[in-house]
Each structure stands twice: as C-alpha cells, then as structure tokens.
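Convert to structure. Protein one:
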Amino acid sequence: MFETQNYEVTKGINYEYVYMKRNDDSKPTLLFLHGFPSSFYCWRHQIDYFSKQGYGCLALNLMGYGKTYSPLDEKEYRIKSMVQHLISLLDHLNLTKVIVLGHDMGVRLATRFVLYHPERTLGLILFNVGYRPPAKFDLEQAMQLTKKAFGYELNGYWEFFNSDDAAEIFENNADVAIDILYPSDPTLWKTDLGPLGAIRKWMTKKKRTNRASYMTDKDYEIARQVITERVQSKLNWYKSAIINIDLDDEKDLDPTIKRPVLYIAGIKDYICVPQVFANQKQHIPNLETIELDTSHWTMEEKPEDVNQAVEKWIEKIV
C-alpha cells in the first residue's frame, strides 16, 4: 500500500518509515506515531487523506515493529533515545517543524518529543491516551485506583504483558488475540482485557468473539503479522514503563506542553477512559478536546470524522 524506506538514525539502529513530501508549502508535515499492537498502517486513512490535501506525511514503524530495530533488551526502550532517533530522521529529511500525532503507546513518545524539542513542533494531537506528565509509574497503585474509580482495573493486562510467557502466548494464539484487541463489542474490554488476569484467561482458554466491522481482510492480515512477529520486542514498551526506565531522564523536564494540543477521545474506549486524563489541562495551556463515538482504534473506526477534526484544528493553529 505504501512504499517504505529505511534509515539508520544512529549506528546500528534503523527505522522503517513511509514519507510523502508535502506539495503545498502552506501545509505542515504530520509525524505519525503508532501504539501497540499496531504499525504505521494504522494511520493509512490519515496518510491517504492528508497527502492528497498537500500535507507532508511521515509515519514510522517504532522500535520493535516491522523492519525497524527491534532489541530484546527492554532497557533499550528509553524514550529520550527514541526522541533523538526522531530528530535524526527529521534532519535527514530536512524537516524543521512537524505536527506530532500519537496513538496509544505512541502518545508517550509524542508528548516527550514535544517536551524535549518544542522548537521542532507546531502542535500535538493525542488519540485515546491523554498526556501524563513525568512521574514515577506504579502499576499496583494504578490498578487499585482505577478499580476503585471504575469497578475494574484499567491496566490489569499490563501484568500479563510483563510476564515471561506473554510473547509466546500471543504468537501461538494470534486469532484469539486479534478478537479481544479488536472486538465488535467494546464493552468486552471491561471484563476480558482490563481486569487483572482477564486477558491471560481469554488467551489460554482460547475464547473467541466477533471482530470489529471496520476490520477488512487486509487489516486482519497486517494485525496478524504484527502479533506473530517478535512480540517480545513490542511488549518491551510496557516492560520499560513498568521499570520506570525514563524516570532519571525526565526528572528535570518542565511538564508544561508549550504547544497547542488536540486530544481526541473515544467515548467507548473502556481502557483509555477519557475521565482518566481530565487533569491534563493543568499542564497544557492550549488544549482542545474532542470526543468521538469510537472505541480504542479511533482513527481506523471513524477516519472521516477524525480527518475533518484534525484538519479544522490544524487550520486554526498554523
């Protein structure tokens, strides 16, 4: 679908990416950062639309994905290093400033990119996951707090992702995993993904359900590839967050985001629940929030609504 390129951002570390140069100088370039278990393919509708409108589009396969560098050591997944990788790629492509779009785990990298290098950004768009300022992450505490607030743990699945056998279970049960990650009934995330122990039970009992209607055969093939190739590398994004790998790097960072931010929430996302991020506005002086009738894969579920909202917002800030 997209012609991919590869670039060595620093010695021994390469990134696979798709780049479409802008053909209208008044339009900015958009930098797309995906989450788990996605790839740059999750932005296909946005790349297709915005490149046709004259915008530049740069979408990467992040570390652990596709043909990008995929180390097995979770200590290599430092966000500060990855931010430098992005800068190196932007320099290579002669891109001075971009609008950064992040989804899911890609939000962590997107927000830190803007904190470390506000001068390279025009704005920031967050999908489903809102801004979490630098702070120590305590998984146990997060699970207790969310269970108290919502009646179930929102990130109980992190405990499974952090376990030694998770990658093997994913690789051997790809269809079972795709069913629960892309279900037609998003409320299943309240019972079979979020709660502690739920996804292990789902996977090992090989439970099945109907998949989301927007998922085409091609989408399924790509999702299957992502879930059967080098899964441990992908899970390292979670492992590194659990061990607070970024704590030292971020301890002196100013938590205020000095660029305009658009947060697009999914009101049927029962893991990245919009209420969890209600306080982000205290660190974002220029924040606009839009809620869409979607579950977690907002830009794939409602691409036209997303593209319209994003374009309208870009026209306001640029």
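Protein two, convert as well:
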Amino acid sequence: MSGSKLRSLWAALAGALVALLLISGCGSPAPQDQKPADPVAEVAFEPGAAAGEVNPTAPIKVTVDRGKFDSIALTNADGKQVAGELSKDGRTWQATEALGYGKSYSWSGQAIGEDGLQVPVQGQFSTLQPKKVIRATINPTDNAEVGIAMPISVKFDEPVKDKAAIQRALTMQTSVPVDGSWAWLSDRQVDWRPKEYWPAHTHISVNAKLYGQSYGDGAYGMADLSTDFDIGRSQIVKAAVGTHRLVVMRNGQQVANYAASYGEEYDPGRNTPNGIFMVMQKNPVEIMDNPRYGYHDVRKTWAARFSNHGEFIHENQENAAALGKVNNSHGCINLSAADAKAYYDSALIGDPIEVTGSASSMPPQFDVYDWLLSWDQWTKKSAL
C-alpha cells in the first residue's frame, strides 16, 4: 500500500474515533443514589414532644407550617380521643376539653405539605400527677334566691396554702355594679361580701376555675365550680334588745312590729349578742339542747337560725307573758306562735338581722361572721 493511501486510512480511523467519543459524551448518566427532596411541611406541638408534668388545663395544640392536616387525633392511654377543633385553614388543631391528671397522651395523623408530600403526626406527652386533689364547694347554689346580706362562700376540704392563686381564679359578674371583696375567713374558706348590703334583685354569676389550679405543696383543685343566683327583696330585721320588740323592714318600709323576748340581760351566757347576723337556716321544728342551763330536747317551731353559737328567732308560746315586756330567754329571740310563723314565712336565707342594745357582742369566730367585721377588717383578709 502506498504511503498516501496509508495516511488517508489513519485519518479516517481517527475521525471515526473522535465522532464516537463525541457521541458517547453528549449527555451525563443519571445519578444512582440521589436523595429525594425533604418535605416542606413542618409540624410543631404544644406542649413539645415527650413533655412531662403538663398542666391538664394548659393549651394543647398542634400546628403545621407550609401545609395542612389530612388527619389528626389525640388519644389517651385507653384509646379514647380527646375532643378538639381544627381551624378553617386546616393548619391548627386544638383540644377543646381539659385533660386528666397523671395521664399519657399520643398524637397520630398526617399532614400534606404544599409540595404534596406527607408528614406523619406522632409524639407523646404526659400530665402532672398531684400529690393531693382537693374538693371545694360553692354557696349559694344555682337558681337560689337569697337575702341582701348573703355572702358568696367557697369552702375547701383541705387547707389552701397559695391563697392568692386561688383568689385570682375566682371571678364574678353582677347585674348592677356592687363594691365588695373576697376575704379568707380560714385556710379552708374564702367569702365575697359586698361593702354594704346587696341591692335588691341583683343577679350574680360566679366562676371558680379550680381544676388544674395549684393550691401549693403539690395539691391541685378537683373541679371547676360555678353558680348563678339572685338577691331577693330587701328585708332587714331590727332587733333592739331594750325595746322588747322585733321590727321587720321590707324595701325600706316597716311591715311588722312583733312583741319579743330577748336573752337575759344580766347573764352574759344568756345575752342575745350585738352584731349584724343573717338567717342561716330555717326549720319548721327545731329540737334545742343547752346542758349548761339544764334543758334537753325542747321542741320549738318556726325556727330561723342566725348564729352557730345557738341563736334563733323562734316560737315560744310558753313564754307569752314575757313577750314585749321582759328579756328572759337563753339568747334566742322569742315570739308568739302566730308572729313566729308570720316572720318565718317572710324570711329568706341571707336576710340580715341587726341586734343592738345588748350587754355583750358576738366575737367573730363562728361559721358565719362576715358582717361582724368592719369593712377595713374585711378587706385586710384578702390575699391580693
């Protein structure tokens, strides 16, 4: 083969090789282990995942950013779902019921991101376990109609240490403005009393948010309390010991003036003591005992208790000769049977009884002594 032909052959082979290399290098092979893109949706919990000692009344919610929930549930250890509400945009779910003490809860469901990718909703948390759960009661009860001296009273089964926290959890609304204050009468009782008597026909609503509330020393409230009640007409008993009369004022007008006998004036143990009291209880029949003065199982009718020291307004027909003339009872206010019945029928629990002119006064130490304290003394018993 001539030299020129050989050179031509090598040139052709070189050109073909270059073309083959160009063809084989016009693209790059797909990567074999490329990671898929991360979902854009992000789920956040309140309380955080694996949280412990959560207050069962704390806000419990879950939110998703750059996405919305496709399904969502919060369940307790027994598999029961907690009631909750999903926002209109589908991005926030919040519990609408309080949780239990000492319980564990689990999240489940999934969110769909703006990129169409799914994100699981999962996690757990637990609520606090109190050392002690304390029960409370509230008075007056729902739908009651009471007198103008009636306090609102919240009583606890155990002493309360953090009184300020509990007092902040107590709220009330009145149909007309009323000036008043809470006062702690003991470690187990807090009362609200108006500065002056309630205006007649006031409607009152009270809420005590005690569930989940710390009482101090690891104790917590058992349940929330509430009550709605009404003040009735204004009725005040004017019990001036020296007059031997009992006067009833209703809505500012005198409606009755009964002959009465008060406690023996010269024996401090038998005085009807001075003070502002209120009707605490009404019983058509009351069995009375006073071992100190030698009587037992004495049956009296139309009895309105106004002190846990033992004072009542009641019938004592056997003492008719003294009524309106002599004070000779053992501390109660005696009336005739007819007058006692008339007064009994007119009285509401919470009506004030104002005793004046006695040789002694009642110390503020028995169950209901709200009106035996001056306003200055009362407000100093507030924890706030």
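Helices lie at 3-24, 163-168, 337-346, 375-379. The chain has three domains: 42-126, 132-232, 235-375.
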